[in-house]
Design goal:
The chain is mainly beta. Helix content is 13%, strand content 44%. The protein contains three helices and twelve strands.
């Protein structure tokens, strides 16, 4: 379980296909603190550390993960957002994030206004995910508050610190992002669909 508060960047140094799986070798300042079999969120996707060598570690994404996330578009040299799993005795600074991406979205626009960055995102509503005004959303592993919630779209406002310390500073119109919708909202939506 995660909070959506990014700790560090990881740089993709190698990608290796293994049948329908993808092994990602990542260089990070967090590597020395990791251990084999530990969960780590990569752009919001929970993956297990399977190998550690020096300042690099390896994780494996299975086919389902690749189909539901933007990890299938990752290239060598890309920077990804990293977060280690939460400790149950610490503050929950973001919101409850499982590291299970619901679907991808597309960046519909980026604008700088009044000291903050505004990002618009579009997503396929056929997957029955929803946002609400001032609700929580996780974009590429970052816990954010929804503004301008609508059908198949929403926006978020990013403060300069978050912009600079996550891969949001690399995000452009047309880019694909990982979306994890609010867990409570998903349960409510599911329960509502069962009664109709």
């Amino acid at each position: 379980m995660f909070t959506g508060i990014i700790e560090s960047f990881g740089k993709v140094v190698d990608l290796e296909k293994d049948q329908k799986n993808l092994h990602l070798r990542i260089e990070s300042s967090l590597t020395q603190e990791l251990k084999i079999d530990q969960s780590l969120a990569h752009n919001g996707v929970c993956l297990t550390v399977v190998k550690i060598e020096g300042d690099q570690y390896t994780v494996t994404a299975i086919q389902e993960t690749l189909e539901k996330s933007n990890l299938n578009k990752i290239k060598k040299g890309d920077l990804i957002n990293l977060e280690r799993a939460i400790k149950m005795n610490s503050r929950l600074d973001g919101h409850i994030v499982q590291g299970h991406v619901d679907q991808v979205g597309i960046c519909g626009g980026v604008a700088f206004k009044d000291g903050s960055w505004f990002f618009d995102f579009e997503y396929d509503q056929n997957k029955k995910n929803i946002t609400i005004e001032k609700g929580s959303i996780c974009v590429n592993g970052v816990s954010l508050t929804v503004v301008n919630s609508g059908l198949e779209r929403f926006s978020v406002a990013i403060i300069p610190y978050t912009y600079e310390h996550t891969n949001f500073h690399l995000l452009q119109k047309g880019d694909t992002v990982n979306l994890e919708f609010d867990m409570i909202g998903k349960y409510i939506s599911k329960l509502y669909s069962l009664r109709t």
